[in-house]
Specification:
The complex is a heterotrimer of chains A (357), B (161) and C (361). By secondary structure, chain A is an all-alpha fold. In chain A, 70% of the residues lie in helices and 0% in strands. Chain A has 13 helices and no strands. The two termini of chain A are 30 Å apart. With 161 residues, chain B is of the alpha/beta class. In chain B, 20% of the residues lie in helices and 31% in strands. A 5-stranded mixed β-sheet of chain B has the order 2-3-6-5-4, with helices on one face. In chain B, helix 3 links the parallel strand 7 and strand 8. With 361 residues, chain C is of the alpha+beta class. Helix content of chain C is 48%, strand content 14%. Chain C contains 15 helices and 9 strands. In chain C, a hairpin with a 2-residue loop joins strand 7 and strand 8. Classes of the chains: A mainly alpha (357), B alpha/beta (161), C alpha+beta (361). Chains in contact: A-C, B-C. Chains B and C meet through strand 1, strand 4 and helix 3 of B and helix 1, helix 8, strand 6, strand 8 and strand 9 of C. Strand 1 of chain B pairs parallel with strand 6 of chain C, so a sheet runs across the interface.
Chain lengths: 357, 161, 361
């Protein structure tokens, strides 16, 4: 059991003892014993640990939104949000606004599919939060195939986008959904190839072991090509500028999300930033040494710092570049990134065979 | 290659242009005023297309600046006013064609200069001057279903002063 | 996908103003295009027949609200041509300076709109920030930021303020440095180049025949600028180059306008040094004889602007005709668009620099 679970165990044990004391006081001793039995405490430990991980991940994702607005604002020679202390309350204000908006559903939508799309998106995104370890002590799961599972969950997004665009009963959202799904699927190939190169070097899918093997050298130095391919593919996967053609085309008003309003739109927006957090975390784990760093700060803080800095680079790219068109997206994805990813894979295999790492 | 559209060697001044026009079409063209870079002429309706063709081919008038209409209600006539520029000669010519007000029809110069297309459509829309041979003479600025010609003098808008 | 007609507009985030572009697409390729205008038609020319000559000057400002000084100046030049009125030298130089400042402001607005079309709000905010410098200068001069109502028939409305030369010199120095930054942001961006190069090609012959003028014509290689080839105001005394490019594509038109901004700075600097002393206005006659006509054409930031006026014997015009450069550029839109993809439409139409106010009048 790592630090998180010990903390959760302690907390749930204390909680159950308080509840048991109340029941003992009433006089129901059997119920009190049931509450402090190992099964109940074990279940509660897992629930509390999951809740803590979820809240931390959620708050970090929301802070991403704040970071984006502030840094993008400064790049454009303006201040970002000013609501509250340093602008940190803007997200909660936005969430509240999305919550209280009127729910408008277009006529003739397929209501089950229409509601399913944002649910799938946000559900998968939260699942990814659970799979990301912030340090050996702060990990909810330590799977041997953790990396594989993260990317499997990550890749469900095109499916949700496609059904969301189709269910909205609008010929333009169908086109937008198909374009978005096409872009996301096309960019997963270089993405997974660059991840494969790291797996070749380390020989494991376990996130903790990948970080442990980066004690001496962070992997982005020998695998610099893979790092660049990974970052570019992630920007395309997150549908950020310069690759946000599905979202903000000149003739499709908001792309596949046009007919979603209110809280559904809020959830979709949130899921995009949660996926951004997951993607940046995976990039830090694979290439930037994860939570390795000098020991005067906690490894969790070190990890979060690296993730924020990486996201700041994404924001910088967004501020400086213009959008690419469909023809150029496919050209970049297939003709530029994929060969680079293959070359990178070759480098990784060569390094492994020569035994340098 | 970039084409220097300014005064080429041997470019024709306004006086030379006027003289060549009068020599070629004495019965259609009447020059009212000439300066070194302006020519003002009245052209007969019948000969407009021939004069325009000559100006385009022989005199290098390659850009049509505007086609306008003027409604002379009391004199019972309309004018179609053409302003044509020559890039290489740096001369702008103003040709006025007089049309009877009850049957304002004139040949279209759109086959010669594509730039006249929308100008002629607007003149038709506002004055009712029919340009024979225009590829698509429809209303352009007023909404569909308008059955009057707004800029004619007998269509009275609001008079403020 | 089969062929279908797609309506881009009239309410659309991409269109600059209110017009409709119907395109017939086959999958992604445009095979036919048809612009539909007239949504902003105000009957300007008919309104002008019911106004006194000085009352039309603020109306002319609102023809194209993005470059209003050049339109009110064009109107005053037309009436001065009709009345055969000679404007004093000082007024000519002042008009030249404000016209060039207006040209810079208009081109900055164009570049800002182009940035939003392509998806970069950074370009938009940088250009609008630089434009504020010039709007402040104009506010010092005549009190207004957008529609100036500054030129009068016979000169300008008021003389320049006290710190005119100092303010302009300071602004130009700062502006040229900042324009270099914005230019680098666009030029050195491979994605920007990829989107603008080889799209919207219009050969010189096509451009001349279709009546396209201004930076659109000069981007196709034809070196014709009314300021040089048919000078008006003080342009004959000032030394500047005509900017042209041979690329014929959207990137060439972009380069022409950016170069024109640098040239305008040069012109303003020379004109400020050469302003003569003297009156800034002459009093024009109040009425014009019936049947007397006059016309003038100028190099508007968007092309060749032209006005034709006929007098009525009293203080109203009989006929006032406006030729707008964008009217013709929009009519040439099919020539720009056919054969390219739908995704190229914002880049191409953005490079043409449209302003609907003057198209529909």
């Amino acid at each position: 059991m790592n630090g998180l679970f010990e903390f959760a165990y302690g907390l749930s044990l204390w909680l159950m003892q308080v509840v048991a004391w109340i029941f003992n006081f009433i006089g129901l001793h059997d119920v009190a014993d049931w509450f402090t039995s190992s099964g109940v405490v074990y279940f509660l430990t897992n629930a509390v640990a999951a809740l803590i991980v979820f809240i931390v991940g959620f708050l970090i994702s929301i802070t991403f939104i704040w970071e984006e607005r502030k840094i993008l604002g400064r790049l454009m020679d303006r201040r970002g949000t000013q609501v509250g202390v340093l602008g940190l309350f803007q997200n909660f204000a936005d969430g509240l606004k999305a919550f209280v908006k009127e729910i408008i559903i277009p006529k003739d939508v397929d209501i089950w599919v229409y509601n399913a799309a944002p649910v799938i998106l946000i559900g998968m995104s939260c699942m990814m939060i659970g799979l990301i370890p912030l340090s050996p002590d702060f990990a909810l799961a330590n799977l041997q195939t953790g990396l594989l599972l993260i990317f499997a969950v990550f890749s469900i997004a095109p499916f949700a986008i496609l059904i969301g665009g189709w269910a909205s009963n609008n010929k333009y959202t169908v086109m937008g959904g198909m374009r978005a799904a096409g872009q996301l699927i096309a960019y997963e190939v270089p993405l997974l190839l660059s991840v494969a190169s790291v797996v070749v070097l380390t020989g494991t899918f376990n996130l903790g072991e990948i970080v442990a093997q980066q004690q001496n050298i962070w992997f982005f130095i020998p695998l610099i090509l893979g790092f660049i391919v990974f970052l570019t593919s992630i920007i395309a996967e997150l549908e950020r500028i310069p690759f946000d053609l599905p979202e903000a085309e000149a003739e499709l008003v908001e792309g596949w999300m046009t007919e979603y309003g209110g809280m559904r739109f809020g959830l979709i927006m949130l899921s995009e930033y949660v996926r951004g957090y997951a993607a940046c975390s995976v990039a830090v784990i694979l290439f930037l040494g994860g939570w390795n760093g000098p020991s005067f700060i906690w490894p969790e803080i070190w990890f979060i710092l690296k993730v924020f800095i990486l996201f700041a680079i994404f924001i910088w790219v967004r501020g400086a570049l213009v959008r690419v068109t469909t023809k150029q997206i496919l050209h970049i994805g297939w003709k530029v990134l994929m060969p680079l990813a293959l070359v990178n894979l070759g480098i990784a295999i060569a390094i492994k065979m020569l035994g340098w790492l | 290659m970039a084409q220097r559209a300014g005064l080429a060697a041997g470019g024709k001044t306004g006086e030379i242009v006027a003289k060549e026009l009068i020599d070629r079409f004495p019965e259609y063209v009447k020059i009212t005023k000439v300066t070194h870079n302006r020519v003002f002429a009245m052209v007969d309706k019948v000969g407009l297309l021939n004069v325009a063709k000559f100006m385009k081919d022989a005199l290098d008038f390659d850009h049509i600046t505007a086609v306008s209409g003027v409604d002379w209600l009391e004199e019972k006539k309309m004018w179609a006013v053409y302003h044509i520029t020559s890039y290489s000669n740096r001369v702008t010519a103003e040709m006025i064609v007089e049309l009877p007000r009850d049957k304002p029809e004139v040949d279209s110069v759109t086959p010669l200069w594509g730039g006249a297309n929308w100008h002629e459509r607007e003149t038709y829309d506002m004055f009712g001057i029919i340009f024979i041979g225009h590829p698509r003479l429809e209303r352009i600025l007023t909404p569909e279903g308008t059955d009057y010609f707004p800029y004619r003098k007998d269509f009275v808008g609001g008079r403020r002063v | 996908m089969a062929e279908m007609w797609l309506n881009m507009g009239p309410q659309h985030p991409m269109t600059h103003g209110l017009w409709n572009l119907r395109v017939k697409i086959d999958g992604e390729t445009i095979i036919q295009a048809e612009p539909i205008i007239g949504y902003l038609h105000r009957g300007w020319e008919k309104l002008a027949e019911n106004r006194m000559y000085p009352q039309i000057i603020p109306m002319a400002d609102r023809l194209c609200y993005g470059s209003s000084m050049s339109w009110s100046h064009l109107y005053c030049s037309t009436v001065e041509n009709m009345l055969e009125l000679e404007v004093p030298e000082r007024a000519k130089y002042i008009r030249t300076i404000v016209l060039e400042a207006q040209r810079i402001g208009s081109h900055l607005m164009w570049l800002a709109a182009l940035g939003t079309d392509l998806g970069s709000y950074t370009i938009f905010l940088y250009c609008v920030r630089e434009r504020e410098l010039f709007l402040d200068l104009m506010q010092n001069l005549c009190g207004a930021r957008l529609t100036y109502n500054y030129t009068r028939i016979g000169g300008v409305r008021n003389d320049v303020p006290a710190n005119f030369e100092r303010d302009f010199t300071r602004v130009l120095k700062v502006f040229e440095k900042r324009l270099a930054i914005v230019e680098a942001l666009c030029d050195e961006s491979a994605i920007f180049r990829m989107r603008m190069e080889d799209v919207g090609k219009l050969t010189a012959e096509q451009a001349k025949n279709l009546g396209v003028t201004g930076p659109n014509l000069r981007g196709s290689g034809v070196e014709y600028d009314i300021r040089k080839d048919d000078p008006y105001e003080a342009y004959s005394d000032i030394d500047f180059d005509v900017c042209y490019e041979t690329g014929c594509d959207a990137f060439a038109r972009y380069r022409v306008r950016v170069d024109e901004m640098y040239e305008s700075c040069k012109i303003i600097r020379q004109a400020i040094k050469k302003i003569p002393q003297g009156p800034y206005r002459v009093k024009p006659p109040r009425t014009a004889p019936k049947g007397k006509a006059g016309w003038a054409h100028v190099e508007d930031p968007r092309g060749e602007g032209f006005m034709y006026v006929i007098g009525n014997g009293d203080d109203h015009p009989y006929r006032l005709k406006v030729r707008s450069p964008v009217f013709v550029s929009v009519s040439a839109a099919p020539a720009y668009l056919v054969g390219y993809k739908i995704a190229d439409v914002p880049a191409i139409m953005g490079s043409i620099d449209m302003c609907l106010g003057e198209t529909d009048r």
